[in-house]
Amino acid sequence: MGLCPASPPPENNKPKDSKPSVLVIDVHGEIVDSIDLTSPDSDFWERENTVKVSTIEISKIIKKYEKEDNIKAFILDIDSNGGGGEPLYDLIKQIRNLDKPVVSVIRDQALSGGYYMASATDRIFANELSNIADIGYITVIDYSKDNISYKKCFISSSEYKAMYYDDCEGFGRTDVYKTTKNRLIESTRIMAREIATFRNLPEPHVQKLADGTIFTGIGALKLGLIDEIGGVHEANDWLESELGSELEIIYYREFKK
Which of 19, 25, 36, 203 is most buried when burial is the number of CB atoms within 10 A of its CB? Predict the structure, then answer.
């Protein structure tokens, strides 16, 4: 399930002991700024029945627990079809600047913004058949086709995303469409460039992959988009090796209430 829209847990909701530990944080669902309906940053109104996860909440959790001496590292347990917003970029910067290691474990999928987040971490693990990448952007514009009725125009950054999202009959030749399309293409180039930097990959290689294509875990491994096939325990083994210490796996979902 997605991360509940709650504030970071109070002081008494901590692990019961002070053993060196890794904190697993769920990133399950569509990535939005906030799932607080009273927040001006909330995207909840877009698709009310979709499971959502808030980048603002994830940022708060990391900020709180990076100060705990017994928390030596973080694992982001990702199962997301994407999403974004300015707080996602802020969270990525936060992850990159952390003094403690952060590792991603991809369950069923890490697409678009979900993969962008994963790419910012120190190492990526995934299942063999996970759906990975879908690098690019989409947006939605309301427009009038006949000055009477309105419909939504789903604009995408690339050919493969267009197969699912571009639906702009009677609107595709307008300046608004072209400007928006070009902005999405440029934003995708920037995302691909940053992913290449995060992953230590040649930029042309990642730019070529940034067309909305979705890869399996095995395919992503061959392309350098992930590091290993595995889950939380394999990620913990790697962290223990890097830190030279045994780590207890602690799930935030189990003590946040």
Answer: 25
The Cα 115–Cα 138 span in angstroms is 15
What residue type is assigned to position 185 of the chain? I
Q: Where are the alpha helices (DSSP H) in 140-257?
A: 159-165, 175-199, 203-209, 217-223, 232-243, 252-255
Nearest to 3 by CA among 41, 39, 30: 30
Q: What type of residue is 153?
A: C
Cα gap 235→78, rounded to integer Å: 13
CA-CA distance, 15 to 24, in Å (whole number)?
Answer: 12
Contacts of 99 (CB under 8 A, 6+ apart): 66
| 31, two tokens | 């990535």
Question: 233 and 6 in contact (C-beta within 8 Å)?
Answer: no
Residues 254 and 13: their CA atoms lie apart, in Å, by 10
Q: What is the DSSP letter of 82?
A: -
Residue 251: beta bridge partners? 24
| Per-residue model confidence as pLDDT tens for the chain (257 residues) | 334 433 444 444 555 557 999 999 999 999 988 755 444 444 433 445 568 899 999 999 999 999 999 999 999 999 999 988 788 999 999 999 999 999 999 999 999 999 999 999 999 999 999 999 999 998 887 766 666 666 677 888 887 765 555 556 666 667 888 888 899 999 999 999 999 999 999 999 999 999 999 999 999 999 999 999 999 999 999 999 999 999 999 999 887 65
Sign of CA dihedral 168, 174, 180, 186: positive
Query: What are the structure tokens assigned to 210, written together?
Result: 């940034």
The candidate with the shortest Cα–Cα distance to 104, out of 87, 91, 88, 117, is 117
